[in-house]
Each structure stands twice: as C-alpha cells, then as structure tokens.
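hey so i finally got around to running both of the ones u sent me last week. sorry it took forever, my laptop kept dying halfway thru and i had to restart like 3 times lol. anyway pasting them below in the order u listed, first the sequence line then the structure token line for each. didnt double check formatting much so if smth looks off just lmk and ill redo it

first one:
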Amino acid sequence: MTDIQRRLFDLQDIGYRDFTAKLLPNVDSDAFIGVRLPALKALAKELNHTPEAERFLNDLPHEYHDENHLHAFLLNLIKDFDTVVEELERFLPFINNWATCDSLSPNAFRKAPERLMPHIDRWLQSDHTYTVRFGIKCLMNYFLNEKFDTAYPDRVAVIRSDEYYINMMIAWYFATALAKQYDAIIPYIEDKKLDKWTHNKAIQKAIESYRVTDEHKAYLKTLKIK
C-alpha cells in the first residue's frame, strides 16, 4: 500500500463507500475506499506541488476509485494550460465512470477557454466514453455564455453513440443550452437533430430546470417524440 493510499484509508467513511458504490454500478465495488469529496479536495490542496503528488500523477492506472478522484482534483489545481492538457491526455483514458469525469474542471481552462477548441475537437472524436463526455462537458462549461457560437452545438448534435453516459451528457448539454441560449438552441429540438432518446431526455432535463421559463417549458412539452 502506498503512502497516499494509507492516507485515503485514514479518511474512510464506510457508509459513504457503500453509497458511492451503488451510484456507480459499472465500477468494481472493491475499488471504493469511501472518502468524501471535501476531504479529497483538502488532501489535493495539501499535496499540490509536492514530489509526492508528482509521483502519484505519474503512477497510472490507479487501484482505487478515490485515487482517480484525487487525481482529478489535483489536475484542477494546475495553473498552466499546457501542463494540465498534457496531464489530461494521460489521465482521460483511465477514467471509468461519470463521477470522476465530471469532477474534472481545471482552473487553467477558465482563463483561456479559446485555447481549448482543438483539444475538444479531438476529445469528441475519441473512442473512449468518458473522453467524449469530458469534451462535451467542456463545451457546456465554457462556451454557452459570451463565447457561444452555433458551431459548438453543431459539434454535439452530430454525435451518435450507444453509450448511456455520452447520450446523457448530450442531453445535459442541450438542456443547459436551452436555459442559456434558448433562441439559438430551440431549432435543434424543433428539427429533431438528436436521436429520439437524447431528444426526449434533453426536453425532460430542461423542463426540470428552474432556469427555463414556464412558457418555454410548455412549448418544449409539445416537442417530445412519442
């Protein structure tokens, strides 16, 4: 057992371990230690910029789900854009669940999102489920406000996959886009540019959102595909 694994087990919460394992049935139940996210984030801050953290980031694949989460939180703290992209390229292929994927939100990206596009385009073309999911998440996080352009939802709308966790992220993307850029996004729903399941799931998530107006929700309900 490594020193970091020992520290993670010192933070173990058995009840949380069992709860998390139920949320992620596609991950081996033996892979969960059960460290709550605030404790993982605190540990990441403590380890940041240390030789121990550097060794940990280079030691892939990890044995435990909690180690992958810690890895994600360490990447979030990296300030240099090129460094975090390089680290992501090594880490993304080892992500095996939506929770770790969605924990990735590097601080460096917020300062220079325009530099992301070549990387996002490559991630969207990946054969790896959570690399694609991460690429869509980046478009949702950084390109639905002042940097919005219909070229971005175009990239998402053409994705076709049998993977639940990709399709769910597409639905989440379009539901969020409907809340933030309704006039530009509603034609994607009206013209049925998504597959049936993702189309209906996007409408469902938009209807559940407090950021979508009641008037828009009423209209969206009429656009469901039966």
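and the second one:
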Amino acid sequence: MRTNTTSYSIALLFIGIVYMAGAYAIVNSPEQSIAKSALGNVPKDVPQWLNNGNEKFLGLYDNEMTGRPHGVAILLPPLGAHPDWPGVMHQLRTTLPRYGWSTLSIQLPVLDSKSTIKDYLGTEKDIANRINAAISFMKNKGYRNIAIIGKGFGAAAGAGYLAKNPDAEVHSFIGISMSGYRDAGGWLYSPNSIMGLALPILDIYGSHDHYHVLNSADDRADAARQASLNSSRKFKSNAFQRSATAESAQTRRSGYIAFRRMKITGADNQFSGAEKKLIKRVIGWLKQHAGGIAESWGIQPLPL
C-alpha cells in the first residue's frame, strides 16, 4: 500500500508539471506560484514560454499597435514580481505598444522567502541566460532596435547584464527606481554596473522612493560620468555607435554618453497616481535617444 501511495504521489507531481501548459518546466515552486498568478489576467496569445538553456520561463509579449514599429522593450520586473505586476510593469507592458514599441516582459528568478538579497547574487547567470533568450526571441521576430527597461531589482539586473554583455545588441537602458543594494555589493550595487555601460541611460525614480534608490542616486550619476570618460570617447560599444546620441555634434565634441537623471516629484516607489507621468517621461526619452536608431533603418518615428 505504501508503494502504491508513493507511485500515486509521483504521478500527481508529473501531471502537475505537464499541466503547466506543457511549457512550464521549472521545479521552483516560489517562481511557479508567482508566474501562474500572471496568467489569469492576460489574453491567451500574450504568454510566451522561453528557454534559458536549462528550463523554461514565462514571458508576456505584446506587439506594437501602430504599424510603424520603433523597436522592442524587454521589461524586467521587481524582486519577487511577475511580468504583469500591477502598477508600473502592467502600465509599461500595455501602454508602450500604443506608441510603436512592442514589449516582452520576462519572469526573473524568484527564491524562497528565507532568501536574502545577497542570495540573489547567485542568480546572475540565470538572469543573463533569460535576457539572452528574450533578445533571441525578439530578433527572430525581426527586431533589431532593443531597449531594456527594469524596475527595482529588475533595473539592477538589467544594468548588471549590460555591463557584462556590452555587445548584446541592446541600444538603450532605462532603470526605474533602480535599486542600489549597497550591502549586497557586486552586480547588485547598480553604480558598479553603470560604470561599465556605454549606451544611452535613463535613471528615473520618485522623490519619495525607497531609501536604497535615493541613497545611491548620486553614486549612479557619478558612475555614469566615469563611464563616459572610460567608454564613449573611444566609441568601443557597437550599440553606442549606432545610437542617435553617438551621432550628435555634442557627443563628437565631448564624448559624453547620454545619461539622464530624472526625479518625479511626489512619486513613491510604486508611482501611485504618477503612472501616466512616468510613462510619458519614458516614451519621450525613448523617442529622443532610441528613435535615431529606428530612423536609420527606415522606420518612421511615431509622433507623441
């Protein structure tokens, strides 16, 4: 009887894994739970199951709605959040397509509740593999103008990825409420990563944001200035060379990479009541700093 019970339990486990759309093969219950909660609120054609080389993970793809595409934004959610997390992530995912930007919002690793932020240092390789899979997915759809937009932990992860992968064919980066996990250090301390970037960067946050976002804001700006001295004068980055900023007369004189620090007065970490203002700033920045790439490929920019 004990053998039968064991066999029955194993069978139920197998059925449960297969039931996850025959596509979700991650045996990570915290991540499964988070990802599943995103599926009930999106159209059936939006979920995409991407493969990072070892396992499958959830992505939500929304095609641009204008017929005049600018490019694609790969969205990286906050710590412990799913790709359609209420607030900023949902607004980005559903609004950018109205302005010519397709979006692919991907699930980042979720550890168990006992994990500390330092434990997430070990997720760097997995995150890189997921972003690589997302880039490949979009390139297979014909996109070449790729931006990364991260929120909180997702912003730190995006900066960390770009610092280690300068030739990943990502042309611009936006960090929203970019977390500065000083205690964790390494790639999770965003100024460390920004120091190695050579592409247009928007650092946007609220005046009432989390302390670790506000306390590292000056360090992020200083890191970007140092990055401009280290990288943009030499035009080493292929992505930077193709950007509108690299082609400007000011850049040719000063060599300074496009770094914009933008604080939204009165906004908290969730941008409660300020979502529209945030999206407007993001779209405007993309038009200025990523639109030049689209134009060089013969894609007409969509007026705001």
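quick thing i noticed on the 2nd:
The radius of gyration is 20 Å.
anyway thats it, ttyl
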